TrEMBL record:
The lineage of its organism: Bacteria, Pseudomonadati, Bacteroidota, Cytophagia, Cytophagales. Residues 1-158, 167-287 form the UspA domain. This is Universal stress protein. Belongs to the universal stress protein A family. It comes from Hymenobacter mellowenesis. Pfam families: Usp.
Protein backbone atom coordinates (compact mmCIF):
# COMPACT_ATOMS: atom_id res chain seq x y z
CA UNK A 1 0.00 0.00 0.00
CA UNK A 2 2.70 2.44 -1.06
CA UNK A 3 1.24 3.91 -4.25
CA UNK A 4 -1.80 5.79 -2.98
CA UNK A 5 -4.46 7.47 -5.12
CA UNK A 6 -6.53 10.15 -3.41
CA UNK A 7 -9.59 11.33 -5.37
CA UNK A 8 -10.68 14.73 -4.08
CA UNK A 9 -13.75 16.86 -4.62
CA UNK A 10 -12.36 19.45 -2.18
CA UNK A 11 -14.94 18.49 0.44
CA UNK A 12 -14.17 18.28 4.14
CA UNK A 13 -14.30 14.48 3.99
CA UNK A 14 -11.92 14.27 1.05
CA UNK A 15 -9.50 16.51 2.93
CA UNK A 16 -9.60 14.08 5.87
CA UNK A 17 -8.75 11.31 3.39
CA UNK A 18 -5.90 13.39 1.98
CA UNK A 19 -4.38 13.82 5.46
CA UNK A 20 -4.67 10.09 6.19
CA UNK A 21 -3.03 9.25 2.84
CA UNK A 22 -0.09 11.52 3.64
CA UNK A 23 0.38 9.83 7.01
CA UNK A 24 0.21 6.37 5.42
CA UNK A 25 2.70 7.34 2.72
CA UNK A 26 5.05 8.73 5.34
CA UNK A 27 4.87 5.49 7.34
CA UNK A 28 5.43 3.25 4.32
CA UNK A 29 7.81 5.43 2.29
CA UNK A 30 5.06 5.63 -0.29
CA UNK A 31 3.82 8.24 -2.71
CA UNK A 32 0.50 10.05 -3.18
CA UNK A 33 -1.33 11.02 -6.34
CA UNK A 34 -4.10 13.58 -5.94
CA UNK A 35 -6.89 13.35 -8.49
CA UNK A 36 -9.82 15.61 -9.25
CA UNK A 37 -12.35 14.68 -11.90
CA UNK A 38 -14.23 17.50 -13.61
CA UNK A 39 -17.61 16.25 -14.67
CA UNK A 40 -19.76 18.40 -16.90
CA UNK A 41 -22.51 17.72 -19.46
CA UNK A 42 -20.14 18.67 -22.26
CA UNK A 43 -17.27 16.49 -21.02
CA UNK A 44 -18.82 13.24 -19.87
CA UNK A 45 -17.45 11.40 -22.89
CA UNK A 46 -13.96 12.83 -22.51
CA UNK A 47 -11.27 10.58 -21.17
CA UNK A 48 -7.90 12.24 -20.82
CA UNK A 49 -5.55 13.98 -18.39
CA UNK A 50 -4.95 17.70 -18.11
CA UNK A 51 -1.60 17.79 -16.38
CA UNK A 52 0.00 21.16 -17.03
CA UNK A 53 -2.74 23.07 -18.88
CA UNK A 54 -6.44 23.45 -19.64
CA UNK A 55 -7.29 20.38 -21.71
CA UNK A 56 -3.80 20.56 -23.14
CA UNK A 57 -4.83 23.66 -25.01
CA UNK A 58 -7.56 21.98 -27.04
CA UNK A 59 -11.20 22.87 -27.25
CA UNK A 60 -13.72 21.32 -24.91
CA UNK A 61 -15.04 18.08 -26.47
CA UNK A 62 -18.54 18.34 -27.96
CA UNK A 63 -18.39 22.10 -27.60
CA UNK A 64 -18.69 24.88 -30.14
CA UNK A 65 -16.39 27.08 -28.06
CA UNK A 66 -17.52 30.51 -26.90
CA UNK A 67 -19.02 30.91 -23.44
CA UNK A 68 -18.99 27.20 -22.63
CA UNK A 69 -15.30 26.86 -23.34
CA UNK A 70 -14.45 30.09 -21.51
CA UNK A 71 -16.33 28.84 -18.46
CA UNK A 72 -14.53 25.51 -18.62
CA UNK A 73 -11.09 27.13 -18.94
CA UNK A 74 -11.83 29.31 -15.91
CA UNK A 75 -13.06 26.27 -14.00
CA UNK A 76 -9.92 24.36 -14.92
CA UNK A 77 -7.71 27.25 -13.79
CA UNK A 78 -9.53 27.43 -10.46
CA UNK A 79 -9.28 23.67 -10.02
CA UNK A 80 -5.57 23.62 -10.74
CA UNK A 81 -5.12 26.40 -8.20
CA UNK A 82 -6.88 24.36 -5.52
CA UNK A 83 -4.76 21.33 -6.35
CA UNK A 84 -1.62 23.46 -6.09
CA UNK A 85 -2.68 24.59 -2.62
CA UNK A 86 -3.14 20.99 -1.56
CA UNK A 87 0.37 20.15 -2.78
CA UNK A 88 1.71 23.12 -0.83
CA UNK A 89 -0.07 21.84 2.25
CA UNK A 90 1.36 18.36 1.67
CA UNK A 91 4.88 19.79 1.47
CA UNK A 92 4.37 21.29 4.92
CA UNK A 93 2.70 18.26 6.51
CA UNK A 94 4.84 15.52 4.96
CA UNK A 95 7.88 17.04 3.20
CA UNK A 96 9.44 13.64 2.52
CA UNK A 97 6.37 12.30 0.67
CA UNK A 98 6.30 12.53 -3.12
CA UNK A 99 2.97 14.08 -4.15
CA UNK A 100 1.68 14.47 -7.69
CA UNK A 101 -1.63 15.88 -8.84
CA UNK A 102 -3.81 15.55 -11.89
CA UNK A 103 -7.16 16.65 -13.24
CA UNK A 104 -9.35 14.32 -15.29
CA UNK A 105 -12.27 15.35 -17.49
CA UNK A 106 -15.08 12.82 -17.72
CA UNK A 107 -17.33 10.74 -15.52
CA UNK A 108 -16.14 10.71 -11.93
CA UNK A 109 -16.27 6.96 -11.36
CA UNK A 110 -14.69 6.08 -14.69
CA UNK A 111 -11.97 8.67 -14.24
CA UNK A 112 -10.97 7.26 -10.87
CA UNK A 113 -11.00 3.65 -12.07
CA UNK A 114 -8.84 4.53 -15.07
CA UNK A 115 -6.45 6.51 -12.87
CA UNK A 116 -5.97 3.44 -10.67
CA UNK A 117 -4.72 1.52 -13.70
CA UNK A 118 -2.66 4.34 -15.19
CA UNK A 119 -0.80 5.17 -11.98
CA UNK A 120 -0.49 1.58 -10.79
CA UNK A 121 -2.20 2.51 -7.52
CA UNK A 122 -2.36 -0.22 -4.89
CA UNK A 123 -4.66 1.72 -2.52
CA UNK A 124 -7.39 4.32 -2.92
CA UNK A 125 -8.05 6.64 0.02
CA UNK A 126 -11.18 8.72 -0.31
CA UNK A 127 -13.68 10.61 1.78
CA UNK A 128 -17.04 9.03 2.59
CA UNK A 129 -20.11 11.20 2.90
CA UNK A 130 -22.57 9.00 4.77
CA UNK A 131 -25.83 10.25 6.20
CA UNK A 132 -25.85 8.72 9.64
CA UNK A 133 -26.12 5.01 8.84
CA UNK A 134 -23.45 2.45 8.14
CA UNK A 135 -25.09 1.35 4.93
CA UNK A 136 -25.01 4.95 3.75
CA UNK A 137 -21.33 5.08 4.63
CA UNK A 138 -20.95 3.29 1.29
CA UNK A 139 -24.23 3.20 -0.63
CA UNK A 140 -25.37 5.95 -2.95
CA UNK A 141 -21.97 7.50 -3.55
CA UNK A 142 -18.86 7.20 -5.66
CA UNK A 143 -17.30 5.46 -2.65
CA UNK A 144 -19.81 2.63 -2.98
CA UNK A 145 -19.06 2.23 -6.68
CA UNK A 146 -15.34 2.10 -6.05
CA UNK A 147 -15.80 -0.45 -3.26
CA UNK A 148 -17.61 -2.61 -5.80
CA UNK A 149 -15.47 -2.07 -8.89
CA UNK A 150 -11.93 -1.11 -7.87
CA UNK A 151 -9.41 -3.94 -8.10
CA UNK A 152 -7.40 -2.49 -5.21
CA UNK A 153 -8.32 -1.87 -1.56
CA UNK A 154 -10.37 1.24 -0.81
CA UNK A 155 -9.94 3.11 2.46
CA UNK A 156 -12.99 5.25 3.24
CA UNK A 157 -12.45 8.12 5.68
CA UNK A 158 -15.29 10.16 7.12
CA UNK A 159 -13.83 11.95 10.14
CA UNK A 160 -10.58 13.75 11.01
CA UNK A 161 -7.64 11.46 11.83
CA UNK A 162 -4.89 13.86 12.96
CA UNK A 163 -2.75 11.00 14.28
CA UNK A 164 -3.61 7.96 12.18
CA UNK A 165 -1.88 5.09 13.94
CA UNK A 166 -3.43 1.65 13.50
CA UNK A 167 -3.07 -0.38 16.67
CA UNK A 168 -6.49 -2.03 16.80
CA UNK A 169 -8.15 -3.60 13.76
CA UNK A 170 -11.67 -5.03 13.79
CA UNK A 171 -12.29 -7.76 11.22
CA UNK A 172 -15.97 -8.78 11.19
CA UNK A 173 -16.91 -12.06 9.55
CA UNK A 174 -19.13 -15.10 9.89
CA UNK A 175 -15.94 -17.24 9.62
CA UNK A 176 -17.60 -19.75 7.35
CA UNK A 177 -15.75 -21.47 4.53
CA UNK A 178 -16.29 -18.42 2.31
CA UNK A 179 -14.25 -16.32 4.74
CA UNK A 180 -11.05 -18.09 3.72
CA UNK A 181 -11.15 -15.99 0.55
CA UNK A 182 -10.44 -12.97 2.75
CA UNK A 183 -7.19 -14.29 4.20
CA UNK A 184 -4.80 -13.00 1.52
CA UNK A 185 -6.15 -9.47 1.83
CA UNK A 186 -6.05 -9.59 5.61
CA UNK A 187 -2.43 -10.69 5.51
CA UNK A 188 -1.60 -7.63 3.38
CA UNK A 189 -3.30 -5.42 5.95
CA UNK A 190 -1.28 -7.10 8.70
CA UNK A 191 1.91 -6.48 6.74
CA UNK A 192 1.04 -2.78 6.49
CA UNK A 193 0.28 -2.55 10.23
CA UNK A 194 2.45 -5.25 11.82
CA UNK A 195 2.06 -3.99 15.39
CA UNK A 196 -1.74 -3.92 15.35
CA UNK A 197 -3.96 -6.36 17.20
CA UNK A 198 -6.60 -7.95 14.98
CA UNK A 199 -9.98 -8.51 16.59
CA UNK A 200 -11.85 -11.31 14.84
CA UNK A 201 -15.46 -10.32 15.36
CA UNK A 202 -18.57 -12.44 15.05
CA UNK A 203 -21.90 -10.68 15.36
CA UNK A 204 -24.50 -13.10 16.70
CA UNK A 205 -28.25 -12.79 16.81
CA UNK A 206 -28.27 -14.90 19.96
CA UNK A 207 -25.74 -16.22 22.44
CA UNK A 208 -22.22 -17.23 21.55
CA UNK A 209 -21.52 -20.90 20.91
CA UNK A 210 -18.36 -23.00 21.22
CA UNK A 211 -18.58 -23.68 17.49
CA UNK A 212 -18.23 -19.96 16.77
CA UNK A 213 -15.05 -19.74 18.80
CA UNK A 214 -13.70 -22.83 17.07
CA UNK A 215 -14.35 -21.25 13.66
CA UNK A 216 -12.57 -18.05 14.74
CA UNK A 217 -9.57 -19.96 16.06
CA UNK A 218 -9.40 -22.07 12.90
CA UNK A 219 -9.52 -18.92 10.76
CA UNK A 220 -6.73 -17.32 12.81
CA UNK A 221 -4.59 -20.41 12.41
CA UNK A 222 -5.22 -20.56 8.67
CA UNK A 223 -4.37 -16.86 8.35
CA UNK A 224 -1.24 -17.35 10.48
CA UNK A 225 -2.32 -14.60 12.87
CA UNK A 226 -0.28 -14.23 16.04
CA UNK A 227 -1.41 -10.96 17.61
CA UNK A 228 -5.18 -11.42 17.60
CA UNK A 229 -8.22 -11.62 19.82
CA UNK A 230 -11.64 -13.13 19.23
CA UNK A 231 -14.84 -11.37 20.08
CA UNK A 232 -18.57 -11.88 19.79
CA UNK A 233 -21.37 -9.42 20.28
CA UNK A 234 -25.09 -10.02 20.23
CA UNK A 235 -26.96 -7.44 18.19
CA UNK A 236 -30.10 -7.08 16.15
CA UNK A 237 -28.03 -6.39 13.03
CA UNK A 238 -24.50 -6.94 11.89
CA UNK A 239 -23.86 -3.23 11.39
CA UNK A 240 -25.06 -2.43 14.91
CA UNK A 241 -22.80 -5.12 16.32
CA UNK A 242 -19.78 -3.83 14.40
CA UNK A 243 -20.36 -0.30 15.65
CA UNK A 244 -20.85 -1.50 19.21
CA UNK A 245 -17.67 -3.57 19.21
CA UNK A 246 -15.58 -0.95 17.38
CA UNK A 247 -16.46 1.58 20.07
CA UNK A 248 -15.82 -0.95 22.81
CA UNK A 249 -12.25 -1.71 21.70
CA UNK A 250 -11.60 1.83 20.36
CA UNK A 251 -10.79 0.47 16.92
CA UNK A 252 -8.51 2.45 14.62
CA UNK A 253 -9.60 0.57 11.52
CA UNK A 254 -12.46 -1.70 10.42
CA UNK A 255 -11.55 -4.13 7.63
CA UNK A 256 -14.36 -5.61 5.53
CA UNK A 257 -13.86 -8.04 2.63
CA UNK A 258 -16.33 -7.53 -0.20
CA UNK A 259 -17.73 -9.16 -3.30
CA UNK A 260 -16.85 -7.38 -6.52
CA UNK A 261 -20.43 -7.45 -7.78
CA UNK A 262 -22.36 -6.48 -4.68
CA UNK A 263 -19.91 -4.30 -2.83
CA UNK A 264 -20.47 -5.28 0.78
CA UNK A 265 -19.81 -8.91 1.55
CA UNK A 266 -22.80 -11.21 1.71
CA UNK A 267 -22.76 -11.79 5.45
CA UNK A 268 -22.84 -8.04 6.05
CA UNK A 269 -25.12 -7.04 3.21
CA UNK A 270 -27.88 -9.45 4.17
CA UNK A 271 -27.69 -8.61 7.85
CA UNK A 272 -28.03 -4.85 7.79
CA UNK A 273 -31.56 -4.22 9.02
CA UNK A 274 -31.41 -0.94 10.92
CA UNK A 275 -29.55 2.30 10.73
CA UNK A 276 -26.34 2.85 12.65
CA UNK A 277 -24.91 6.21 13.57
CA UNK A 278 -21.41 6.58 12.10
CA UNK A 279 -20.15 9.53 14.09
CA UNK A 280 -17.70 7.32 16.02
CA UNK A 281 -16.69 5.06 13.14
CA UNK A 282 -12.99 4.79 12.32
CA UNK A 283 -11.83 4.53 8.71
CA UNK A 284 -13.11 1.46 6.87
CA UNK A 285 -10.90 -0.55 4.53
CA UNK A 286 -12.52 -2.80 1.96
CA UNK A 287 -11.00 -5.25 -0.47
CA UNK A 288 -12.32 -7.99 -2.72
CA UNK A 289 -12.50 -11.59 -1.63
CA UNK A 290 -10.09 -13.84 -3.50
Amino acid sequence: MKNILVPTDFSTESHHAFEVALQLAKQTAGRVTLLHVLESPEATTANFSTYGGPVNGSELPNSDGGIDQLFFVKLMEATKGRMHRLRTEAAALAPDVDVEDGVEVGRIGDGILQAIERHGADLVVMGAQGHGAMENFFVGSNTERLVRLANVPVLAVKHPQPHFAVRTIVFPSDFTEEATGAIAGLQQVRAAFPDATVHLLHVASGTDTPATQQHQQAFAQHAQLTNFQTGTVSAASTSAGIEQYAKQVQADLVVIPTHARTGLSRFLNTSIAETVATHAFPPVLTYHLA
